[in-house]
Amino acid sequence: MKALVLYHSQEFGNTGKMAEAVAQGLRDEGLDVTLFNTDESRYPINEFAEYSCVAFGTPDYYSYPAGTLKTFMDDHYIARVRKGVKNLQGKPYALFYSHGGGGKVKPAMINMFSYVGNQIGEPVESYGAPDQKTLEDCKALGKELAEATK
Ligand SMILES: Cc1cc2nc3c(=O)[nH]c(=O)nc-3n(C[C@H](O)[C@H](O)[C@H](O)COP(=O)(O)O)c2cc1C
Fold first, then answer.
1. How far is CA 92 from the centre of its chain?
2. Separation between Cα atoms, residue 116 and residue 103, nearest integer Å
3. What's the domain range around 91?
4. Tens digit of pLDDT per residue, the chain (150 long)?
5. What is the DSSP string of 38-94?
6. Taking burial as the number of CB atoms within 10 A of a residue's CB, which of 5, 82, 107, 119 is the most buried?
7. How much distance in Å is there from the Cα of 103 to the middle of ligand 1?
C-alpha cells in the first residue's frame, strides 16, 4: 500500500522534520511512502489517485495553510469534478502543522482537507522546531494513519 506525505516547508524546515517523522511511522507499519514538498514544485494531481492514504503538513501562514497546499486542493477539485479523474477522494488522511506562536491555522486546515476523505487522529502541532516529543507524536500519527488504512 502506498502513502503520500504532502507538505509545504520553506522557512526553517520545521514542517519538513515533522513530515519525515510521520513518514517513519507509516514505513514502520509497512507502507511504501512518498514525501513531497510542495514548496519545490506543484504536485502532479493525477498521481494522487495511486495512494491509499495521505498525511498533509503545513506551516501556519496568516492563520491559513500555505498557498501551495491551497493550490493542491484547487487542482484536486478541478481534476475530480471537471476532468472526471477517479479515486481522488475517500482516503484516510492525517494532519500536522508548525507555527510561530499564533498557531490559529488548525480550523482552516481541518476544513480545507475535509474534501479528501476521513480525518484520522488529532492534528499534531509544533511551535517552532519540533522537539523529540513532537517528533514521537508525528511518528505515532503516521502509525495510526497506517492502521486505519490497512
Ligand atoms: C509568510 C509567513 C506567515 C506566517 N504567519 C504566521 C501566523 O499567522 N501565525 C503563526 O503562528 N506563525 C506564522 N508564521 C511562522 C511559521 O508558521 C513558522 O515559522 C513555521 O514553523 C515555518 O515552517 P517551515 O520551517 O516548515 O517553513 C508565518 C511565517 C511566514 C513566512
1. 11
2. 23
3. 2-149
4. 999 999 999 999 999 999 999 999 999 999 999 999 999 999 999 999 999 999 999 999 999 999 999 999 999 999 999 999 999 999 999 999 999 999 999 999 999 999 999 999 999 999 999 999 999 999 999 999 999 999
5. TTTS---GGGGGG-SEEEEEEE-BTTB--HHHHHHHHHHHIIIIIS--SS-SSEEEE
6. 5
7. 9
Query: Phi/psi zone of residue 103: left (φ > 0), alpha (ψ -120 to 50 degrees), beta?
Result: left
Supply the residue whose CA is at minimum distance from atom 28 of ligand 1: 61
Helix axes 14-28, 132-149, angle to 10 degrees: 40
**Type of residue numbered 120:** I
Which residue do the cell numbers 499534531 mark? 124
CATH number of the structural domain spanning residue 39: 3.40.50.360
| Residue in the block written with cell 476544513 | 111
Domain count, the chain: 1
Q: Which residues contact 84 (CB under 8 A, 6 or more apart)?
A: none
Mutate to test the pocket of ligand 1, among 6, 61, 63, 96 (most ligand atoms within 8 A of CB): 61
Cell of 25: 511511522
